[in-house]
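RECORD TYPE: inverse folding
INPUT: structure tokens
STRUCTURE:
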């Protein structure tokens, strides 16, 4: 099997398109509170993407590579106020009834989500360029997931204003381009079996990050919170 086929096989097996929370989302089985919890917690992931990309940028040794990678930071941060992916995610939150100040405050982010995101940022901080870039290759599978998600929201969650889905629409083409660029780099930098194994392990790790994040969101509904109250009691307080 080629390195590309081996990478695809890892993601096919471990990517979060198979996670029970995503399956329930696509089947229209999540309630409003669960959708809101997912959006709020995923904002914590989103706001760390440009930070991990800045850490990767600092490892790239040529102007060509840095010019390519810096665009990812601009995609999320925008090139001015009120632009970019983070702004679009805040609008998704507003369309779901979440105040942007709540998302920006970072309050209510689940402990497991904080750990998963911290794990991903530190991985990109500490590992080689090959490993850090390979860990972004979950994006090979993200565009299809976005298409499924847009369809699911339109069909099942029409209470959420469709304008809020712009984030996902913009990520289809961005994810296709980003994953193609990253895959080309990983193929170019993989010279032997040791490199191949590092790349595969990095992609597996990143799949685990995304899986753990959804585990935390999924289980939050049935666990006691920091103050020892179950969610129902908490919202009644
Ligand atoms: O909603 C998703 O399922 C999903 C998955 C992924 C991914 O597969 O890593 C990313 C995103 N969204 C996303 O919006 C995004 O900007 C992004 C950047 C990256 C990355 O690792 O560089 N992954 C993802």
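DESIGNED SEQUENCE:
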């Amino acid at each position: 099997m080629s390195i590309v086929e081996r990478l695809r096989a890892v993601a096919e097996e471990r990517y979060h398109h198979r996670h029970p929370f995503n399956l329930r989302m696509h089947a229209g089985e999540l309630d409003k509170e669960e959708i809101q919890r997912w959006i709020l917690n995923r904002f914590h992931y989103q706001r760390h993407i440009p930070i991990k990309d800045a850490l990767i940028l600092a490892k790239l040794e040529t102007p060509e590579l840095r010019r390519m990678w810096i665009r990812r930071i601009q995609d999320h941060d925008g090139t001015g106020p009120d632009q970019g992916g983070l702004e679009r995610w805040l609008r998704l939150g507003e369309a779901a009834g979440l105040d942007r100040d709540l998302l920006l405050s970072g309050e209510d982010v689940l402990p497991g989500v904080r750990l998963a995101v911290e794990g991903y940022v530190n991985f990109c901080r500490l590992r080689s360029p090959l490993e850090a870039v390979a860990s972004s290759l979950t994006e090979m599978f993200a565009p299809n997931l976005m298409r499924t998600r847009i369809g699911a929201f339109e069909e099942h969650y029409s209470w959420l204003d469709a304008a809020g889905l712009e984030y996902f629409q913009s990520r289809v083409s961005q994810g296709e381009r980003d994953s193609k660029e990253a895959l080309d780099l990983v193929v170019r930098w993989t010279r032997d079996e040791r490199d191949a194994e590092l790349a595969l392990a990095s992609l597996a790790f990143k799949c685990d990050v995304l899986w753990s994040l959804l585990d935390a969101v999924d289980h939050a509904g049935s666990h006691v919170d920091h103050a020892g109250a179950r969610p129902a009691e908490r919202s009644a307080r």
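NOTES: Residues 233-237 have pLDDT under 50 and may be disordered.
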